[in-house]
Amino acid sequence: MRKALAVYRKELRQILRDRRTLLILVFIPALFLLLYGYALNFDIRHIALAVDDRDGSPQSRAVVSAFVNSGYFDLVATTHSPVEIERLVNLNQARTVLVIPEGFGRDLSSGLQAPVQVIIDGDNANTATTVLGYASNLLRTVGAELAPPTAVRPAPLAVEPRIWYNPELRSTLFLVPGLIAYIGMITAVASTALSIVREKESGTMEQVRMAPIDTFSFIVGKTLPYFLISLASAALIILASMVLFGLPMRGNWLTLLLAVSLFLVGALGTGLLISTVAESQQVAFQMALLISLLPTIMLSGFIFPISGMPAFLQAVTYVVPARYFLVALRGIVLKGSALSHLGVPLLALTAYAAAMLTLASLRLSRERT
Amino acid sequence: MQRLRCLVRKEFLELRMNPRLLRLVVIAPILQLTMLGYAATTDVKNVPLVVADGDRSAASRELVARFEASPNFTVIDTVTAVNEIEPYLGRGRASLALSIPAGYGASIRSGRPVKVQVAADGTDSNSTTVALGYATSLIGGYAQELIDRAAAGPDTAPGRGAAAGPAIDARIRVWFNPQLESRHFMIPGVLALVLLIVTANLAAMAIVREKELGTLEQLNVTPLRRWELIVGKLLPYGLIALVDVLLVVAVAVLWFEVPLRGSFALLFGMSVLYVLSTLALGLFISTISDTQQQAMMTATFFFLTPMIYLSGFIFPIENMPAIIQPFTYLIPLRYFLVMVRGIFLKGIGLDLLWPQAAALGAWGVVVLALAVARSRKIAR
């Protein structure tokens, strides 16, 4: 234990000397939360709308104002020229175009079905899907209002949507756990890997090898500072999101600490393992990026739902620790889940951490002999 | 020129001695393409759904059957009371719960309006929004069918009823990507991300490495001029980046079948412009970092992360609040993404894209000037 403490002290001193890295590791994550918490959301609003109203009747104007008043669309242009429409869409100045043909109002008031054309820029498929939903719902509603009463029957069936745990569907609440995972990955995996590979690169690893330090003390001493820093950074993120974004804390703090610690230990283990494989810091960084950072963004369910992925990628997500961490964190913070409900994710995190640490120490002790 | 050639040779020798790095810069883009091409979709499929059927009539089973038939939903269980759905949502076994009230079938038969409730787990607000949208439109479509059925009447043959369908016939057309494939949007973006990592991060680390090992001093006392040193250090990474351009475009077009509607030459030319400006960024990062760890942190936190999140790569810029939007103009990735996606999907040319190209070029020049001004202090 004394030996581990010695390595720890040396590592900590080295980190403390590098003020900028320390500041980045501890404070920048919370600052970023602020920025991204405000900036990122999936609520699609202010869709730039161009209108080509060839009818000019009260009914067609009612359709246009229904779009504008919905709060989803911003009217950016009115035009009668197809060339102009194409130019607006190509320049991304209009994302949606509403074309109302001549005779729209006449058809509608005589009880006929009146066509309307909606053009959606599909380059971003995710936004386009949502816009498509908005547009068809708006047209259905406004059509029912404008058509003569005889032509419309009341809908026999209505939906009443309810959202649990996060009724305003605030993106922040679900981004925060993802950001903790992401930042944990940068600090824990990348920094640890780089700090060890640096010793290899500058040749001081030989000295460590000569010193009477066993593998266990080396691992503990090297990773403990990064563990503490990542923990502090995670605590800051959680506090900041509670104060600034009203993140509720419905569960138990100790359960939260357990989940965060398990995740961080797994991440540190990954960093160690990378450091035993990589010979230069550039390689270590690339590997950290590929096996931890990108999967954390892409494959954890942080941004993209796992259920929408093809089967082989879904299989891969089972070895992405952030996947379990997100379930555990969202469960504890937003749902107030008790420890007994979180058995699966917590066990998976433990298994991942154990596997990484075992592999890393096996490789390390082989390297050292 | 002779001196420059020597330095470039030294750089390539160093890269050759590090075969893992070379392999990684080839494998990395492919892995990223796979992840983004397949994973980056907010389409929600097989959403686990629990049904609380308080009616248990033929009518309610018909509605449930609609959900079962839809590829978007998987009915995992059916219970009888609304309060039984709580544990399903609480433990995350289901993300959506459909509650059908008692007396539902009777109301439908007598034409009285009736409400069904859809409860969603809001902890993942992104998929929740999408899944709720699917559920709402599924029920809406079913309601329309019930209206049409009632209008047609029991005696009329199907399809002969008057005024079937809604009053306004919405003819929606989606341009450029009619199948609404997310990957057509994400994969061209990967090009931008890959190039950024290879040029900015790796180039910065390569220069800082010389500082860390003390060999930059040695290079400083050689007769190399400053610009030769800079060009020599950056050139190999520029070349790797251009190989990555070819690789990513080939995989995107041949494997993922993303349409390349515009000119390849223009795409390549714009990639060169982008690579030049991100190499300048790498140089700039190297001038403000003393260790590779610092360079990595600076590049990842201050450049890579904001660029991923704020460039419109994943999150559309027009959704961001008005105070944030001006900042996105500082991000070179923003301009390159508009160009890459425009060339790939819309097939537009420089006549429409010149403002983006000019902005990207200007950004590169400013960053290069900053980097050169700072590097004066380091190299002689």
Question: What are the key terms here?
Answer:
heterodimer; A: 369 residues; alpha/beta; abc type-2 transporter like fold; 4-stranded mixed β-sheet; 9% strand; B: 380 residues; elongated
Task: Give the topology.
The complex is a heterodimer of chains A (369) and B (380).
Chain A: H1 2-17, H2 19-26, H3 28-39, E1 47-53, H4 58-69, E2 73-78, H5 82-90, E3 96-100, H6 104-109, E4 114-121, H7 125-146, E5 157-164, H8 171-201, H9 204-210, H10 215-245, H11 253-277, H12 281-298, H13 311-317, H14 321-335, H15 343-368
Helix pairs in contact in A: 1-10, 3-8, 3-10, 4-7, 8-10, 8-11, 8-12, 8-14, 10-11, 11-12, 11-14, 11-15, 14-15
Chain B: H1 2-16, H2 19-39, E1 47-53, H3 58-69, E2 73-79, H4 86-90, E3 96-100, H5 104-110, E4 114-121, H6 125-152, E5 168-175, H7 182-213, H8 215-221, H9 226-255, H10 264-287, H11 292-310, H12 325-328, H13 332-346, H14 350-378
Parallel strand pairs in B: 1-2, 1-3
Antiparallel strand pairs in B: 3-4
Characterization of the model:
The complex is a heterodimer of chains A (369) and B (380). Chain A has helices at 2-17, 19-26, 28-39, 58-69, 82-90, 104-109, 125-146, 171-201, 204-210, 215-245, 253-277, 281-298, 311-317, 321-335, 343-368; strands at 47-53, 73-78, 96-100, 114-121, 157-164. In chain A, strand 1, helix 4 (58-69) and strand 2 (73-78) form a beta-alpha-beta unit. Chain A is an alpha/beta fold. The longest helix of chain A has 31 residues, at 171-201. The model of chain A has no long low-confidence stretch (mean pLDDT 82). Chain A has 2 domains: 2-40 and 170-366, no CATH class; 47-151, abc type-2 transporter like fold, CATH 3.40.1710.10. In chain A, helix 1 crosses helix 10 (215-245), helix 3 (28-39) runs antiparallel to helix 8 (171-201) and helix 8 runs antiparallel to helix 12. The two termini of chain B are 20 Å apart. By secondary structure, chain B is α/β, with parallel strands linked by helices. Helix content of chain B is 65%, strand content 9%. Chain B has 2 domains: 47-175, abc type-2 transporter like domain (abc type-2 transporter like fold, 3-Layer(aba) Sandwich); 181-374, no CATH class.
